[in-house]
Amino acid sequence: MELDPGMMIVIAGVIIMPVIIIKLAKQWKKVKDMKEQAASQAAQEK
After folding, report:
1. Closest CA to 5 of 13, 19, 21, 17
2. The predicted structure's pLDDT at residue 1
3. pTM surpassing 0.85?
4. Can you count the helices (H) and strands (E) in the chain?
5. How far is CA 38 from the centre of its chain?
6. Distance between CA atoms of residues 46 and 40, nearest Å
7. Alpha helices of 1-46 — where are they, by DSSP H?
């Protein structure tokens, strides 16, 4: 079975997208946690 460049890009995208989404989700969660910690610290200082 011959793979044309378009198919290879699609296959690579299917493989890579979940990895990128997981990385972004982890980063976003980290940022969200940091913001929540900062907010709770600010609330405690009042």
Report:
1. 13
2. 61
3. no
4. 1, 0
5. 22
6. 10
7. 5-45
